[in-house]
Amino acid sequence: MNHNETTDPGTGSALVPASDSSDHGHELLPASLVRDADRFENPGLPAHVHRQADDDPKAARRAERQVATLFGLSMLATLVFLVSYFAIPDESVFFFPGIGRAKTQNVVLGLSLGFAIFLIGIGAVHWAKTLMSDEEVSEERHLQASTDEQRAKAVAVVKEGVESTQFARRPLIKYSLGGALGLFALPLGLQVAGSLGPVTVEELKHTIWDPKDNGGKPIRLMRDPEMTPIKFDEVTNGSVFHVMPETLQKYIDEGKHVLEAKAKAAVILIRLDPNDIKVQKARDWGVDGVVAYSKICTHVGCAVGLYEQQTHHLLCPCHQSTFDLTEDCAVIFGPAKRPLPQLKITVDDAGYLVAPEGFAEPVGPSFWERAR
């Protein structure tokens, strides 16, 4: 055995130093591994291939202009988004081949915003491929902590990498990229400021259950999704109906705002023994034990659709908020803070269930303006 070798007490195999350098220390490895490693040559790095922009200042300036053009087109697409948001009527629709009728504004906004971010991405890729440094760099890894000198060297490498992007040397790219990214942020702020608020309590209360949307006449309750009317004598004790207003049909026929209308108008209709209803208002707003409540949970707006007949509890599947039908849908468990709003119903001359008025309070997640 070589005098520089030692023996692994566990396996009896020879161990040799993995490296004699002061940086790595004397790490002992099995001699067989060292001999196997000697059979493979270090492939090294391939010869660096210079790009045209590396050696030709004209090519570099041309690439700079191309990148700036892409960023400029991104700004133009963002401006199209901003103009379209205000200029295209919300009711404007057109027939899209293969899809059907679509809102013109949605299509233009989606395409313009998509092109804006796509052009920023393409510009960044072209910048990296033509102007940023593509010198291959490798660094040997070691097990010991870095010294102060090595950390300083790493910082220097990072700074050198930043300089290799030529960001400081190419003001045209810097300003065009800043403009593209700056303009691209505007649609996001516009969506928040223009589409999400502010709204009034009356707007929150309004749903398509409002008789004003039906010429002032009571609105028939329709099965969802069949959109067929419900007769009072069809609602047996313990039965559950998922209900939409008859006025939804107008939105379906026109092909606009259907999802928005359904999201606020969803109602659950249930019949229980009138003697089980403990709140007088809930009995008065129903018909012989048939009551209708909003399906939109007052926590975060999930659909409340699970009914337990023995306990008369309604359960929201998202966060387990539980409402007691016998107590005018008061919250008895979970994070919801408000009862489900009740929809007042009656029976018309033909025996169909109808809603003579809309909800008396906002549906959905809780609002501080609500009376209870």
UniProtKB/TrEMBL annotation:
Alphabetized PROSITE patterns for the sequence: RIESKE
Domain Rieske: 264-354
Domain of life: Bacteria
Keyword annotations of the record: 2Fe-2S, Cell membrane, Disulfide bond, Electron transport, Iron, Iron-sulfur, Membrane, Metal-binding, Oxidoreductase, Respiratory chain, Transmembrane, Transmembrane helix, Transport
Keyword Iron: yes
Residue numbers spanned by region Disordered: 1-24
Membrane topology of this protein: Multi-pass membrane protein
Location of the protein in the cell: Cell membrane
Residue spans of biased composition, Polar residues class: 1-10
Residue stretches spanning the membrane: 67-88, 108-128
Family (UniProt): Belongs to the Rieske iron-sulfur protein family.
Protein purpose: Iron-sulfur subunit of the cytochrome bc1 complex, an essential component of the respiratory electron transport chain required for ATP synthesis. The bc1 complex catalyzes the oxidation of menaquinol and the reduction of cytochrome c in the respiratory chain. The bc1 complex operates through a Q-cycle mechanism that couples electron transfer to generation of the proton gradient that drives ATP synthesis.
UniProt name for this protein: Cytochrome bc1 complex Rieske iron-sulfur subunit
